[in-house]
Structures are given as structure tokens and as C-alpha cells.
Design a protein that fits this description.
Radius of gyration: 54 Å
Strand order of the largest sheet: 1-27-26-25-24
Number of strands: 36
Shape: elongated
Distance between the termini: 158 Å
Length: 1325
Amino acid sequence: GVGENDYASVSALPGLQNVPNFANVRRVPLPVELCLYFNIHNRRGAVSPVTTLTEVLDLQYNCLMGLFPEIKRAWLSIDSDIFVWNYEDGSDVAYFDGLSEYIMCVGLVKPKPGIFQDHIKFLLCLATTVDVVLLGVSFSEATRETAGFPYKEMHLQPEPLFVLPLDQQTEITSINGTRNGRIFMTSKSCHLYEIEYRDKAGWFTQQCRIVNHSSSYLYGVSGIYNIFLKIINLFSAEDSMQQIAIDESRNILYTLSKESTIQVYDLGSNGKSISHVATLNRSAILSQASRSARYIDTGNFAPVVYIAAIEKQESLGVHLVAVTKSGVRLYFIVMNSFSSRPSNFQLVHIRMPPGCTPSVPAMQRPNNINLAYYNHGLMLMASSSTDDSDILWFTNPDVFPFMKLLKESQCTTAINGHIWAIDEIKDFDRPVNPNLKIVKSDPPAIVSQHAKPLRQFVILGAQGAYLLDSFRPSELLRCILLKCGRVDQEAVQTYFSIDTINAVASCLVLACSNRPSDQHVGKLASQAFFCYSDEPRFEFSTNLITPTEAGNRPGEPTTQSPYQQSPQTNVNQMSSPAGLDGSYLSLDRRSKAVETVRPIPSGNSVQPVQSSSADGVPTMKFSLKHDGMPVWNSSITAEVIGVATEMESQFSSDELLWLCEQVASLKAFIEEHKQLFPVLHTEGSNPSLHHHMLNVIKSQAGARPDPTAPNHQLIQSQLHQRYKADAIATEKRSFENLASLLTKCIECFSLWSIICNHNFSMVMTNLSKEMRDIMARTKFKDLVLGDGKMTNALIAALIDMYLLDNASTDSITDQLRVKCPSLYSSEDATCSKAYEMLHNAKKSTDMKESEMAYRSSLQLFRQVTKHIDVAHICQQYKEVFFFEGVIELALTAAKADDIKEYALNFYKNGDPPNDNMGREAFAKRSHYYKCIVDSLDYLMNAAASDASRSPLGSVSSKRTNTDLDTLTVNEAESMMEKVLSYSFASGDELIHVTLYDWLIANSLHDRLLEVTSVYLETYLKRATSSQSSNLVAMDLLWKYYEKNNKYQSAALILSKLAERTSTDITLQSRVEYLSRAIISAKSASFPGASGNDGDFLHELEEKLEVARIQSKIHDALVLLQQEKGHLQEYTEALRDLNGGIFDISTLYKEFANTFDLAECKLAILHTAGHNDINLIESVWKDIIDYEINRSRMLSEGGKMSNIFNRLAEIGSLYVHSEQYFPLLYILTLLEKRSCELNWDPRVTFETLLRLDISRKTTLAAYNLLFRARDPFWQAVKKPLHLYSVIHYLITSSIEANDLGPSDMRDFCIFALSCVDSYLVELESM
């Protein structure tokens, strides 16, 4: 405050000498009833009537006086009586005379909720010398005339609510209360008291009592310090607490004593507790102040006569301001950045009062301040100059916003008589709309002046009440324009020289005003708006050009850009509390950023930049009329921070309509004057022009230009014209974008207002929980600039409310289309009508009517698929079994979103990784197709269960049952078939593909093969080629070929399946594939793989033989594994055998020979045609020995039966091939084993007979064995074994009935010839 520019008197500026100090000054005398009372009770018997408070004091009354600004009342206590009246007009005088003691202190507080009856709105606290009386204050019910202010007619309850006795010698000096109903009092003995009251008394507590917080045992160290202070006070001048200041935003209480001691109390984070934090006495304040301001007389820093809390809305970094008797303001902090609660008490800044500069005489400075008031930057101080009058000092920073260093306007006004009280009308934060709420972070007045009325102050003095209206920038301009009548006067020029940007914004406030009284001044403001603005331009900033040459405007921030952050004060003074320049008092409220949106210019013209580059690229400088727009636009929307808190709107419908009107007025102003923003068509600036322009500037600055550049005198004019055209075009586009932004704001305000008219909380309940949470966090800026999801959700919830009430949506949709055309288009109206039809169809009990409504809604939904949630609608249709609607809507939406069929090309090209457009289109189509798939899943689950429930009956199923609440299995199956048939009738190839996938995934292969579509073969071929491991697709493909008589293709697929190297196909399946391949090959005539019709079939048959041998080897290994255990070699061999078909050599070497599988060896030799008789006989020997060894654990009968059954089974395969069934060798080997193992002699030849070997052939084989004279029989001592066997053979053959006459005759002849030789042999033995 010691700088020449820290304070300025507006009336001292050129041309503003006749501008008044206040916008309005009005004196309201004391009420007539009060003066009449004084005259009746005149103690001196004065002849002249009493009309002023000075005359009352002369009558030697015990008189106190004060203000209740909350209810617009002044009060006066005379001895034991108190009078309360409306200070605006002196009406509604209420009084209370039920006390017998003098009133020493008065306070008005808000009661705690739920304690008293509802009609008691306030508590009037009257402190006398002996007690404290609490009176109930009520008001008459508001009428239409008093609806704007509910406290018109006041009533004081005749009986006190509570009477609380005081201790002896306790005198109350001040009373103050909090918003939550707590009542605090101070006394002359420097004690802090609280009146605690509750709805009823407790066991150990009274219903109402006085608590002394200064003598609490919990006071701790601070209490000891307080006691120490009291002891000191016993030996010094008497001290007493004089004032209580409460910071409601932080829950902190401050007290001020007569001797300038300030104490800090913490009321707790919830405001329900209290604890002492710190104390700063007079000497401590002087010590800190003297260290910060060493060259200032310390006498200016004491005594402190007034303190005021600085709430969060004003500053986050400063917490308390104290005013001294000389008018010095001391700023304190009680919290640090590491704590959310008060913990220290420190002086951080000092601001001297006006007149402290050396050029100002001392007599023009405030002195002897006895009363002050501070709130949100405005300061009023009452200075006692003479006994007959006081001087009112007024400082206001609103006229000079956004200054880097704090600058305030100041003025003085003489008030007749002594000033008793100063306060502000508490509805100063009430905007023009009575219900509009204040913003959370208070911006400077230049931003909020359009939305808030003038700040009004009431001064209570000896002559009555003085009502003062402070000037805001726009009101100051209004006054100047009305006095001048023209915009070219010196006063108007002076106003614009103070701060050009803010002057332009103030012009907009007046020009956009809708009040009839502002019509004339609005025209003058419009003229000034354009008269004192400049044109947009490009500026070069180089090292050769000074800032002045660059054309910076006086007082204009050089980095300000359109639709970005407003000019801020970025001065950090916390690190230097000793500074006296006042910059710390920018108090972050002056640096509140005004959030707006910067429109992005388009086209080929030069884009605005914020700083010049090294090569001299110019900076875009918008015009003043353009730069004033962000301030005005932000001043409107800055009022709106959030949209909703939980389920309640932060604004009423009337508030929103008011905001909408403000935005609309700005838009109308732009449209009305758009002809003043000419559009110059230009092809854009060539980058080389920047370099030419730089050369011109360098040449003008005396620098040496580029010698290669053309003559700058020839191009200078052309360059300036082009840059001017670019600048104008850029600003024009910016205005157009601003108009679009304003339109969006208007529509969002209108939508919000409509929702409030329909009960905001009810509409919010129709939103999902997730959307409600998002809405609670959504800022209005996000609502306007968002992607439309929130506005769409709100509109949908609003229309749902109509649908739930079974009401027509026509009225609300028409209203939305008129007021929110871009948020709610004709397509949106179609959606709403379709939703209404869908809703009515669900409610209808008539099946035909319901079906018609569903189909009608479907036709509407198909028209606006891009504007609806297709999945949600399909879900609605599915719930009522209207599956036809699901299919049509999904297919229509898929086609509408992919008109150029990018998805189909993506699919046909094999899903190329670089085709992002195709991939996105395919994903969108898949999303829509999922609606059909979900319906099929639902029906399939229903068909698999006993029944499926639905809220309503079917529309498209033509149901046969009459129970509309259930869906039978048969109905589910029938509907599923209809969905498939209806879908397959579509020409959309991708829905076919989707359904083919679904059928395969659900193992409905037979149903897939029933599809008659040109897309099925392509799908299966693509699946087999793109996924070589897709066995299901290959299996379906050969079945498809076979079903469609394409046997040749089926045989090829089957052959590939059989030969496929994979463990997914079992060996048994391979055999079956080859068998079916042979059948298909025989059913078709086509060129085979080897070149003719028969070769391919022959190859298949050979492969089948080999596969069967491989299968036999597999079975043999399984048997061995069971006998010998799960050895790894068996497991690996089995896995290999299942993995593919081997050639016959590999089977012999790797498997049959390795694992000694004799039977498999014989099969391989037979198949390969290998006729090595010795190898074959060896294999037969191994077969017989293996079977004998296998049966060793059986009984004799079971052993022989098992062995010869197996031999008969094996022999039947080769009996007709003499090479692979050596009869004589087998017979010899069997008879030898029979002899060794004592088998029944008949078992061998009976086994041979079972192989269809004739009896004659069998006898001939035995005859050859007999004639071989094998010494084996003698060695085993059974020389007659063969005789016995032959005897049984001949005897059984003769007795057998299976030989015909001819065969019997031939057998008998051969037998007789043999018997003769046998008899000879026997005789010779």
C-alpha cells in the first residue's frame, strides 16, 4: 500500500470528476415508533421531539445499537428494552420489554435443526448483567408479495426459551453463532463461552447450559499460557474480549481482545468440537510486523480494532485479516500446506491504508479507526474525525481486476454523527435470479457482475441507516455513459484506458442486458465496444523490435489468447512475507482461471501462435472485441460448476432459464453485429512471405536485409494486405466457433431446465447406477463439450419417465426438438416414438394389437439404427419372443454401418493385419450379429430345459398354448428353427458365417448340413484351408460333398483325413475314413490320383488293407500292454500308430518285428505277397507257441479250447492261400504239441475241419505225416499216436453226416488204400 499505484480514486481520473463514489446512497431515518417512544419516556422533559440517536444519548440512556443483516434488521437496546426494525424502510418494528436488567450485549444466531419448533427461525440472545436470555424469532408465512424475501414480518416470542444465569462479575461483550447452531460468547474477563442446548435434558446434563472453554481442564499448554496472560493482566491495563470472527468454510473461530490479543480455536473438521490452537498478543504482533516492515512506524500496527475471517472462497492461502486503529491491514495464516487443521499463527502480509505515499499529506490518511468491515476484498472503515461526524473509508479492488500487483479504488464519505455498526446485506451473493447459487470459487467482480446484484452495505449511525451500493466495472461504465450520452467523451476514453479488456467485457454486460431500462445504455455500450476495439493482426517479434514496437496494448497481458485461461496473477508472495507491495493480496481469488474453450480455426490460413519462432513467424493478435468475449462467456458459464449432487440438481429450472437467457443474449449480440466482422476470402499465406516480412522489418530497424530477397518496397503493401486478410479470416472463424459453442450451451441449459421441470431426482432414478455416479462428477463443461453420452442418457431417462407413466411422448419430444435441436434431432424423435410403441406393445393384452405395435416399432427402429442401442432393443424384442424383429433390426444395423462392405472384403481377404478399416467394420457387424446369436443361445437353453419363463407372450412364434408366461421345449425348438431359417434366408454372407460358427460350436452338425446355401461350401473350404487343424470342418466338408452327390470331392477329403498326421484322429477313424472313401470312389467316376479311374480306387483299397493291419498291430500292442503293464515303449508305439498311416515295411520293422507280433507279421507277409516259406513257417510256429503260452494258466479243457479257437480264427484268414497256410507244417507242429501236452487226439483234425478243409485233404495230410517217419514219435515214446489220430479221423468221417454220397465214396476209397499200408506197418512192428 505504499506504492503510488496501489490506490486510485476514480473521481480523480480525467473526465470522471463528477462520477459519484457509490452507485447509490440512501438514508433511512429511525422509525417513527422509536422516536415516539423516546419522546414519551423523555427523562429530561425536553420540549423538542427526539429524532436522532444523538438526542437519545443526551437523555442518558444505557443505549446499544447494531445490525442483523441476515434478516435485514437493525436493533437498538435502551436499558432493558430492545427494538428491532427493518433498516431498508424503517418498518416492522418489534420490541421486547420482558427484562428487568440492562441489556449488555445482543446477538442473532441460527438455531440447531430439530431442537425447536419449525416456526422458530432464529434465536435472539440477550445478555444482561445477571443472565443470558434466549428468545425465539419467527416470521409470518411468505406471501406472493414477500416470496423473494422470507423475513418480512418478524415476531419475538413473549416468553424466553431459556434463561441462563451468569456468574458474578461476568459481563458478556460479544455474541456470535455458526450455521450449524452453535452459540459463542466472550466476556470482559477474556473468557470464551458456549451455550450448549439440546432437545431434552440428559441424566447428567442440563437441556441448556453455559460452558466456559477458557477454563477447561483439557486446555493443555495453551490454557497455562492463557492463565499466565491473565496474571500479567492483573498488573496491567484491564483487557477484555471484544469480537468473535468465525470461518465457516474451515471451522475456525477467532477472538479479539481490547488489548489486541488474537486467539485461534479449532472447531474440528465437522464443526462440532473446540480446542485452543494459538494466541498472538499485541507485543507478538508488533514484533512480527516490525520485522516485515522495518521502515514503517510500529505505532501503525496497533491497536487492532477489527478482525475478519477470510474463507476458502476468497483465498486458500490467507486465513485472517486484522485492521488496526490507523487503518493498516494485517494478514495472517493459521494453517500450513501439510495440515488440514489450524496449527500455527503467523503474520504473512501487511497492507498500508490509502495515503501512505510520500506525496500524500498525513491529514489525508485514515486515523482513529474505531469500526471496520471486510468481506471478499471490500473494506469499509469508520474514522472518527470530529464529535459531530465520522469519515467512512471505502477500498474496492473490483475496478482493477487481473492486475499483477493488487490495485484498489478508494473513496471517502462523511457520515453525520457517530457510526455504530457497519455490515453487508447478506444476500450480496444472491444473483439476479433469486434462487441462483453462488459459485464455489468466487471469481473477480468483472467475471460475476452479470449474475450478481450490487453489493450493498448498511451503515448504522446517529441519523439512522445509510444504504450504500458499491460500484462494479459495468455499473461504473453505465454511470459514465449515461452522464456523457456519447462514446467519444473523455470520461469514456479514460474508462477504457484503465483496463481495455475488462472495459470491453463490461460493454458486453450492458449491451447484452435484457432489462428494458438498459436499452439506451446498451446501445451506447455497443458503440463503445466497437469504437474502442482494434482489428486483428499478425505481429512480428524479433530481437530487432522492442515490445512497444510490437504493438502491445497498455495494461494488456501479452500472452493472452482467445478462449484460453483468462489473465492470471501468478505472483508468489508466501516466500517473502515482508513485501509491502500488496501483490500477495491478489489472494488466489484474483487468479481464478476462467475456463473456456478455444475454437480451433480451420482452413489454409495462418494459425494463431503464442510466440514467434526464431525465423520470424508472426504471432496472431486478436482484436479487443474478440478478446473481451472469453471474459463475458466465462462469466456466464463460470457460475455453473457441476450438474448434480447425488440425486439433486444444483440449479432450479428458473435459474437455468436465466443462465440460458444470458448465453442467448451474447449469441444474439454476435449475430446482430456479424456484419461488422467481414469475411475476406484468401488463399492463405505462403510461408516465404514470413521471411519477406521479416526482411522488411529488419530493414526498417536498420539491420542488413537478405540480399536475395526482392525489393521490400514492392511487396510490403501486398504482405500487409495478406496478413490482414488472414487475421480477419482467422478471427471470423473463431467467432463462428464461439457461436457454435454458445448454441451448445443454450441447448444444454434448456435440456437441464426441462429435466428440472420434470422432477430432476425422478429422472435420475431412471439412469443406471454407473451413469448416476458419472453425472455426480460431471462438470457443465464436460456436458457441453463431451461426446454426447451424458445428454443422450438424460434424454433417454426423461422419455422413460413418460413411458413408465404410460403417457404419450409427443409433447416432450416436440419440446426437445424445439429447444435442443442438435441434442435431440428428428432421428431422436423417431427413436422416442419407436420406444413408445415398444412400451405400449408390452403393456397391451391384445395379442394382435401387440404384434402390430412391435412391427411398427421395428419399422421405426430400422430407420434410425445409427441413433439407438441396437443390442438393447434386440434384448427387448427377445424378452417378448419377437425374434423376427431381432433379426431384421440386427441385419439392418449391420448393413447401415458397413454400406461399402469393408467387413466382407476383410473376411474374404483372409483377415489382413493392415486392414484396420475392415477389421473395425467386421467388429461392428459382429456386435450386431451377436444379438441374433444371443437369441439362439436363449432358445437353445430353453429347449434343453423343461421350460423358460418370459414376462410376456410371443409375437412371432404363433404359439399354440395359451399360457403366456411359459415357453415349452417344443416351442423353443420351433422358434430356434424359425430364427435359423429366417436368418439363412438373408443374402448377408457374414451372418451365414456367424451362424455356421454357432452351429459348429454347439455341435449341431446335422443342422448345418441341412442348410442349402451357396456360402456353406465356401465357408467349409475356407475353414479347412485357413485352419489345417480344423478336423470338424473337414469332417463336415466331406459330408457336405457326399450329401450333395459330389462323391469325388468327398473321397478326396476322406483320403486326406485318413492320411492326416495328427493324434486328434484315432486309427479306427482312419480306417472308417478309408472305407467311406472307397465307397464314395466307387460311386463316382473321375480321374484318380494315378491317372485313371481304377488306380485311385486301388490305392484306397491298398491303404485300407494297410490301415487294417496297422489297426491289428495297435490291438495287439494294447493286449500286450494289458499283460505286461504300461511300459513307455508300448505307450509311444500306440501314440505313433494313432498319429498316421504307415507303409507296410515300417509296420513290419518298427512294430511287428520289434514287439514280436507273429500274427501281425503273417498279415503283413500276406498283404505284401512275400512267399518266403521258411519265414512263414517260422511265423506260424511263433503263433502256435504264443497261443499255447497265453493259455498255460487255464484248465486243460479251457486251454485246448482257447488255443484251437484262436488257431481256427487265424487260419480262416489264410486257409485258402497255401503259401501262407502250410498245412502239413502246421499239422505236424500241432500234433507234436498235442503229443507233448497230452491233448485230446481229435482236437487237431477237428480244428482243420472247422477251417473248411475237406476230410479227404485232412486225411491226405495225415497220411503224408505218417509216411515221413519222423523219429519224434519214438523219442516221445508214442509211436502209435498218429495211428490213433488217423483212426479217430476215419471213424468220425464215416459217421459224419456232412459228406455227400460222392464225397463219402471218394473218402472211403482213399481211406481203404491208406489203411492197408497202416496194417502192414503194424504187422511189421
